[in-house]
Amino acid sequence: MKNLRFEKLELLSTVERKGRTVKFHPRLTVIIGENDVGKSSVIKSLYWAFGAPVRMHPEWVKAKVKARVSFSIDGERRSIIRDGSAFGVFDENGNLLIATRSVTSKLGPFLAKMLDFGLVLPNKSGVTETPPPAYMFMPFCIDQDSGWKQSLESFDNRGQYKNPRKSVVEFHSGIRPNRYYELQARKTAVQLEIAELGRDRQVLEKAVAKLNLQPAFTGTEFTELEHRESVDRLLVELRKLRAARLKSTAELADIVDERELVTEQMRIARLAMEELGKDYIYASKAEAEIFCPTCGTVHDNDFTHKFSILDDREACAQFLRDQHDRLVVVRKRAEKVETRLHDTDALIEKVSGTLAEKGKRCAKAPPNIVL
C-alpha cells in the first residue's frame, strides 16, 4: 500500500449546532482527556469518514455528525466528506473525484486504487471483490470495545466474508503481494464460469423448493387413469404457481406505490431547497431591513434571519438524505420480489409446456392407449 497520512479532521453536527477541528502532526499525535469526553469518537470518526463500520457512541449517532478528513497519499493531498450514507472524495483543488452511497461496490474499489490496496476476498456468492475500506485500516485501529481484547476486531464487519483474518494479515504483513491476489481473482473467475453451466437448473430447483412444490414432470403413463392423475397434479401445481405469482404481483405493486411516493416527496424537498437557496442569496445581498409588499411590514434582515433560512434548507437536505436511504431499502425489496416473480414465471412456463406436450401426445396416441 501507498503511504497514507491523516492531516485534519473536521466534524459538524447541525443537530447540536457544534463543530470541531482536529489537526494531526505529520509524525505523531497524542489525544489526552478525561473519560467520556470523546477521545475514542475522534479516532473512530476518521475511519467512519472512510466508510468503516465503527461502533460509535449512541450520543454521537443521535448528533448526525458530518465529517471531512484531509489526507495525503504519497504527498498528494485529497479530502473525503461523509454525510450520513453519502461520500465524496475531492482532489487538492476541490474538484470532485467520486460521489457515491455504495461503500463496497464504489467507494472501496476507488480508495483501493488510490492506495494500491490489492487484497481481494470471495464474497458470499463466491465472487472475488475488493473488500470495503475497513480492511485497509483493520490492523491500524485498536479500540477499547473489542480491539484490545482480540486483534482485528475493532470494526463491525458482521461476517461479510468467511474467515478473512488470515488473508488480511498476509496482505498487510507483506507475505502475499498484490500480484498474488490478482491471480487469485482470475482463478476464481474461471471457476465461476465453469459453475455457470448449471445455473438455470439450480434456479428452477431453488424456486421449486421455495414454493414448496413437487416435481411435476412424469414419465410414461400406461393407463387413462394414470394420465388423468398426472395431468391433475400438473394443474394443481399450476394453480399454486399462479396464486403465488398473483401474491407477488400485488406485493410489487405496493412497493412501486411506495417508491413513487418517496420519489415525489424528494422532488418537493429539492424544489424547497432550491427556493430557500435563492432566498438566502437575496437576503445576503439585501439591506438590514426588508419591506414586504404583501403584508406592508418591515422585517429585520439580521444574522438570525439569514441563519434561519439556512437552517430550513439544512432540514430539507436531511429529509432528502433520510428519504434516499429509505429509497435504497425499497429498491432492494423490489429486486427480491422481481426475482421471485421471474422464478415463478419460469416454473409456470415449464409446467404449461409439459401440459401442452401431454395434450399433443394424447391426441396422437391410438385408441385406449395413453402415452
Would you give an account of this structure?
The longest helix is centred in the C-terminal third of the chain and has 62 residues, at 224-285. The chain has 371 residues and is an alpha+beta fold. It contains nine helices and ten strands. The protein is flat, with a radius of gyration of 30 Å. It folds into two domains: 4-196, Rossmann fold (3-Layer(aba) Sandwich), CATH 3.40.50.300; 224-364, Helix hairpin bin (Helix Hairpins, Orthogonal Bundle), CATH 1.10.287. The protein has a six-stranded antiparallel beta sheet. A two-stranded antiparallel sheet has the order 7-8. Helix 7 packs across helix 9 and helix 8 (224-285) runs antiparallel to helix 9. The model has no long low-confidence stretch (mean pLDDT 82). A hairpin with a 6-residue loop joins strand 9 (289-291) and strand 10 (298-300). It is 53% helix and 15% strand. The chain has helices spanning 39-49, 58-62, 103-115, 134-137, 165-172, 178-195, 199-210, 224-285, 303-364, and strands spanning 4-13, 18-23, 65-73, 76-83, 86-91, 96-100, 121-122, 128-129, 289-291, 298-300. Keywords: Plasmid. This is AAA family ATPase.
Helix content: 40-55%
Quickly count the domains: 2
* CATH-level-2 architecture of the largest domain: 3-Layer(aba) Sandwich
Spatial shape: flat
